[in-house]
Amino acid sequence: MKDEILGAYVEAGKIASRILGRSLPLVRPGASFHRVVEEVEALVRAEGAGLAFPLNLSLNEAAAHDTASEGDDRVFRAGDVVKMDLGVHLDGYIADTAGTVDLGENGPLLRASRAALGKAISLVRPGVSTGDLGAAIQGEIEALGFRPVANLTGHGLGRFEIHTPPTVPNVRMNGGAVLKEGMVFAIEPFASTGTGYVSDGPRVQIYQQTGDRPARLPEARRILDQVRERHGLPFARRWLTGDKLDLTLASLVRSGHLHAYPVLRDVPGSLVSQAEHTVIVTGDGCIVTTR
Ligand code: MN
Ligand code: MN
Predict the structure, then answer these.
(1) Quick one: which ligand is closest to 152's CA?
(2) Residues 131-150: pLDDT tens digits?
């Protein structure tokens, strides 16, 4: 890896780590969901960095992909388990990191995802397979009495690409990719009190452009014009301006111009925690860019 690229990954990681550390304490009972999201995103822009994706704040049984909507009036409540997932990029080089805030009494649930992440990171070096990382994650989470979320995974990172090979499973798996020096990827264990499987909910606030085909309708073209500068990185509905946004977004998803990211959730009443870091594989271990 060239020095400039390594430097960008490391610097993006430092920014993401610093901002996540400052932002997790903003999640308190009575605090506004919308205000926290806007405040954290503003911190990223104030650093001169880009958002690799909208700030994800996902509550309780929701594991990922929720963010504030326009006019979102939700507030955090005592008892909530809140995942904050932050993506920062410098010139397209991404740092992806997440933590969980417990507004109840769920210490063991939070420890489970953190311990799994720590264990997986300790194993990263050339020659290890992603299946080995999944087995370690599952072992740590189950030892604390929870279920790993089997259908969410860590993922490779590329320039302006948030999901590239390798996939890093959260459960035991035969085979998998063999790690090599220079690979950049996120490891993100989720621990759940529910089934350990997430499914799409009805709420969609995050989208991503797929390809660069022109659209026909003027409203559709206005949306694509607004997201072109994202270079294919995900964006939030609340970042857009214009009329008939919901109809137009839905039609752009149907026509294949956009990919939708519905909120992913385990069963009602369950609680999910998440921990995430970005790593770069070195000759004998890894650099954790977001620690
Ligand atoms: Mn993330
Ligand atoms: Mn991730």
Answers:
(1) 2
(2) 999 999 999 999 999 999 99
* Ligand 2 mean position, distance from CA 186 (Å): 5
Looking at the structure, tell me whether residues 166 and 178 fall in a common domain: yes
Rounded to whole angstroms, the Cα distance separating 18 from 79 reads 26
pLDDT in tens, 59-86: 999 999 999 999 999 999 999 999 999 9
pLDDT of residue 248: 97
Distance 249 CA to ligand 1 centre (A): 23
**Would you tell me how many other CB atoms lie within 10 Å of the CB of residue 25?**
9
Distance 64 CA to ligand 2 centre (A): 10
Q: Which residues carry out catalysis?
A: 85, 96, 155, 163, 188, 276
Residues 223 and 271 both lie in one domain? no
Q: What is the pLDDT of residue 122?
A: 98
What's the pLDDT at 190? 99
Ligand number nearest CA of 87 is: 1
Structural domain count, the chain: 2
Q: How many angstroms does the Cα of residue 92 sit away from the middle of ligand 2?
A: 15
Q: Indicate if 120 and 90 belong to the same structural domain.
A: yes
Q: 167 and 254, same structural domain?
A: no
- Here the tokens at position 170 are 């959260």
pTM: 0.97
Ligand nearest to the CA of 16: 1
